[in-house]
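sorry for the late reply, my laptop died twice this morning and i had to redo everyting from scratch. anyway the thing you sent over, i finally got around to it. pasting the sequence first so we're on the same page, its 121 residues, then the predicted structure underneath. double check i copied it right bc i was rushing
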Amino acid sequence: MGSVNRFLTLVRPRFVKSLMHFVLWLKDQGEVELSVTDQGHIEYLIYLCNEQTSATIFSMHSVNRVLATKFASNELLLDIVASGKVKNKARQRDLLAFTKMEGSSYRCFFEIYSKAKGHRV
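ok and here's the structure:
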């Protein structure tokens, strides 16, 4: 189980960073309308991902930070779609599907919550 957590802790920030760059690319293509706040959230998530991928120490806290980052990414993508900022239905579907890859919001939250309460998953 530890090696799986280690692997996912390495993969998730790269995945989230790629997703955020994809959303920025969609904006540049005119397929997504982002507010200044949305762009700020995206830039902050990219910053967090850069911090996480450059970390040289792996710990339980690393796992929690990465899970929290994926949770935030999921919620941002959901909000962008739910608020009508994505024009194309296929793109809406794609962005929502990405919220289920490498950690759904529920799973990320459940893992963090369980660890905080002392109940390991």
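The CA atoms of residues 41 and 76 lie 8 Å apart.
thats about all i looked at so far, will dig more tmrw
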